[in-house]
C-alpha cells in the first residue's frame, strides 16, 4: 500500500533553488550595504532559554504569550525557538563581554519562529536580516540606521513603494504616566472596547493605540499623543533625529500611534511600511532599547537596531522591481559530444574553474541532441553554452553560444578564458598565480 506523504508544517515554507537564487540576490545587496557601514556578522543559536525572551520581550506581549514555540528539552529545561534576534544578540554580547565600555555594530540573518496565523507575508518560520548597534546613545546612530535602510531600498529599486513611520515612546517613566491617562480614558469607555483591548487594559494598554477597531480609533482621537508627555531628553533626542533625517533628505511620517509590540523599546521606534502587499505591509521595524542589556544582567549599554522581514521584502521587490534579476545559478553550460570524450570536457571545465574561480559552470554528462542540451542550458538560466568535440570543429576549437545576444561563433580553446572573463565581468586568475596556490 502506498504510504501517506508527509508534508511541511503549516506556515513553514520550503525555499526551492529558483526562490533561493532570488533571495540570494536580495541578501547580497543588503549585506553589501550593511557592511559598507562597518557592521560585522554575528551568528547566534536558533534556540535559547525561554526566560531570555520572557525577560527581553516582556511576558505580557503577544509574541511571548501566544506565539512562541516553547519545548522542554530532554533535561526538562524550557527552551524556545527564537521569535526574533535582538534578545539573543544582547545575550551573546553580554556573555562574551563585547559590550562593556565599547561600541559594537552587528548584523545577523536567519530563521525566526512565531506561532501566528499564516497568510501572505506572515509565516511561522520566516527569515530576518537584523542589525544591532550597541554603545551609542546619541540620535546620530538612529539616523544612520535609517539612512542604511533607505540605501537598501534604493539599491533594491523599491524606494517609491515604501515609507518611513517614526515615533518616540520616551522613557519608562513617560510611559507609566501616559498609561494612567490612557487607562482612565479606556475605563470610562469600557463598553466600546473589544475583548482584546479589555485584556490589554491593565497588562499592556499602549498596544491599544495600535488597534485597528474603528470605534477604538475614534475614541483615541481625543487622546493627547504620547509625544506631548515626553521627558525633555527624549524630546531632544527625537528632534535631533528628525533634524538629521531632514538634512539627509529622508522623508518620514510621524505616527503618534506607533508603539511596537515588543516591550524592550524606548525613545525612537520606526517602521518601513508599504501599501503594495495587503495586510502584512511592515517590511522592516526597529527602535532604541537602552534598558535591555541591563535587564539581561549586563552593564548599562545604549542600543538601537532593526530587522527586515526577508519574505515580505522579496514579495515587494517582485511586485515593483521586475528588473532585479535573481542570482544566476549557472553562467556556462558545457556540452561535450560523445560519451567517450567526456574526459576532454572535464579537463576544460576544471581549467576554466582554475582560471575563473567566480565562474559558475555546469557540465552535461549525458548524450543527446544539441538542441536538447541548449534547451536545458536555457532552462538553467545559463548565459552561454560551450560545445566541444563536434565533427564540425577542430580539437583546438570550441563553439561559444551566447543566449543573451542569440549568437554563436567558433573560437580557439585558448581564447575562451579571456572572452568569458570580459563578457561576464569576472576576474581572470593568471596561470602563474594558479600554480602558486
Ligand atoms: P518585529 O517587528 O517583530 O521586530 O519583526 C521585524 C520584521 O520581521 C517585521 O517588520 C516583519 O517584516 C518581519 N516579520 C515579523 N513577523 C513575521 C512573520 N510572522 N512572518 C513574516 N515576517 C515577519 C523584531 O523582530 C525586532 N527584533 C527588530 C529589532 C531589532 N528591534 C531592534 N533591533
UniProtKB/TrEMBL annotation:
Domain called Aminoacyl-transfer RNA synthetases class-II family profile: residue spans: 1-326
PROSITE patterns listed in its UniProt record: AA_TRNA_LIGASE_II
Main location: cytoplasm
Similarity field: Belongs to the class-II aminoacyl-tRNA synthetase family.
Source superkingdom: Bacteria
Protein name: Histidine--tRNA ligase
Pfam family, one: tRNA-synt_His
Keywords, sorted A to Z: Aminoacyl-tRNA synthetase, ATP-binding, Cytoplasm, Ligase, Nucleotide-binding, Protein biosynthesis
Compartments, record wording: Cytoplasm
Top-level EC class as recorded in UniProt: ligase
GO cellular component terms attached to this protein's record: cytoplasm
A single MF term (Gene Ontology): ATP binding
Subunit and interaction comment: Homodimer.
Gene Ontology biological-process entries: histidyl-tRNA aminoacylation
Reactions it catalyzes: tRNA(His) + L-histidine + ATP = L-histidyl-tRNA(His) + AMP + diphosphate + H(+)
Residues annotated for L-histidine binding in this entry: 84-86, 114, 128, 132, 260, 264-265
EC number(s) per entry: 6.1.1.21
HAMAP family in UniProt: His_tRNA_synth
Organism of origin: Candidatus Erwinia haradaeae
